[in-house]
Design a protein that fits this description.
By secondary structure, the chain is mainly α. It has helices at about 1-15, 20-35, 40-50, 55-70, 75-85, 90-105, 110-125, 130-145, 155-160, 165-170, 175-195, 205-230, 235-255, 260-295, 295-305, 310-325, 330-350, 355-365, 375-385, 390-395, 395-410, 415-425.
């Protein structure tokens, strides 16, 4: 069944058919051709694959991101970042990165960052004389921090498939997320000096304090989420619900930016995004089940170990494979298809799956800005009006800092494991 499913899925994916439909067709044909199972197995596997309490956190974090965008929280965050760091050469570009790092601790998704903060950031940078392609590239690259700094929707999905601790994965993303921000800012400083970009006026103590007070309540969101999870007060799913409720109270009752007429639209958009993700998850998971049933995962592990037992070489090979796969596939299908293959192999050579989880999520984040399928590329071009072909060229230098951090966290696992081992041993 496995060769049939994989070949048909690959062919349909190359035709441009939506991933969820293509994987569903491939799974149905594979099951029917086997003659061993009734077709009703497809429906059973689709339902079983998403029947899990942990997955409820995904729509709740998506809802939280939508509420933040409508509530004007993005403006408050960007204002604070600008006052803190706007006086450096390329100041607004640096503020773009810092704002993404802050917003990442609330939304859990790169899409929410690019779609929400992106509009504010690109307009501000254009108005201050930055070239459009540079502004859009910085916005897309900084949005990749969204899935790394917790909370993280991809990490929830990884934890569900690999049966790992979501709390430990969340903590493992902190240091890598900060490293990405530092590396991007180093590149931005170099480009800004070369192009002689301007800097903003240094914010006074009173201006910084005022901006901080305006952003204080939103800044408590990650404290509530991670503090509750680490202390055991609530689960990740409960934390997502608390975050969504807290954001709604901020936007609706305190800031009064969310009106009753906005709520149906927010809920509909959340449901659309969730439905697409769950549809992909349910159909791709059926192909993964076929591979596990036919012991393809075991055979894959045996084959790789026959080549080398060095965990560093294996991790390097997997990184290259994931980076190539990320140029043509979205993150969710990649995780659902490959985690059952990689997890047993990595465990057999002593690699911690929390460490690998952060490495994998960063690989997927890089894929979101890598041509030709990078999802963030499409989002920021829609927000900015910059032609996609032009962005595909200008985004490439910004991939380099992400690759540097990927190499660091791959081969220096302490960068990922320090906080999980310290706080949730």
């Amino acid at each position: 069944m496995t060769p049939i499913a994989v070949v048909i899925f690959a062919i349909l994916a190359l035709t441009g058919l939506p991933i969820a439909i293509g994987s569903g067709i491939a799974a149905v044909i594979a099951i029917a051709s086997s003659g061993r199972f009734p077709l009703v197995l497809m429906i059973q596997r689709m339902i079983f694959s998403i029947d899990n309490f942990v997955l409820l956190a995904i729509p709740l974090f998506i809802l939280c991101g939508r509420l933040m965008n409508v509530a004007g929280i993005t403006d408050r965050i960007f204002e604070l970042a600008q006052k803190l760091i706007g006086h450096i050469i390329g100041g607004l570009a640096h503020a773009n990165v810092v704002a993404s790092m802050i917003f990442a601790g609330m939304s859990g998704a790169a899409v929410a960052d690019a779609g929400g903060l992106g509009q504010v950031e690109i307009k501000a940078m254009k108005d201050q004389g930055y070239e459009l392609d540079f502004a859009v590239s910085v916005t897309a690259a900084s949005a990749t921090i969204g899935p790394i700094i917790p909370p993280s929707v991809p990490m929830i999905l990884y934890a569900f498939i690999a049966e790992e601790s979501i709390g430990r994965l969340f903590l493992g993303g902190f240091i890598p997320g900060i490293l990405i921000g530092i590396m991007l800012m180093a590149l931005i400083y170099f480009i800004s000096r070369k192009r002689n970009y301007s800097r903003s006026k240094r914010g006074s103590i009173s201006e910084i304090w005022l901006a901080f007070k305006r952003a204080l309540l939103p800044l408590l969101t990650p404290v509530i989420i991670l503090g509750g999870i680490a202390s055991g007060v609530f689960t990740v799913t409960e934390a997502a619900a608390v975050a969504a409720l807290y954001t709604f109270i901020l936007g609706g009752l305190i800031y009064r930016e969310i009106r009753l007429r906005d709520i149906p639209g927010i809920l509909i958009e959340t449901m659309k995004t969730t439905a697409v993700m769950m549809f992909i998850l349910s159909t791709i998971a059926t192909i993964s089940w076929i591979m596990v049933y036919e012991k393809v995962t075991d055979q894959f592990a045996i084959f790789i170990v026959s080549l080398t037992k060095n965990p560093w070489i294996i991790l390097g090979m997997i990184n290259i494979f994931l980076l190539l796969l990320g140029t043509v596939l979205e993150g969710a299908p990649i995780m659902i298809l490959t985690i059952p293959l990689f997890a047993p192999l990595l465990q057999s050579v002593g690699v911690d799956l929390v460490h690998f989880g952060v490495v994998m999520v960063l690989n997927i984040a890089i894929g979101t800005i890598t041509p030709p399928i990078g999802m963030l590329l499409f989002i920021v071009t829609q927000v900015s009006g910059l032609p996609l072909e032009r962005l595909m060229k200008t985004i490439l230098p910004f991939v380099i800092p992400l690759l540097v951090v990927l190499g660091l966290i791959t081969y220096v696992p302490e960068l990922v494991m320090f906080l999980p081992n310290l706080i949730m041993p």
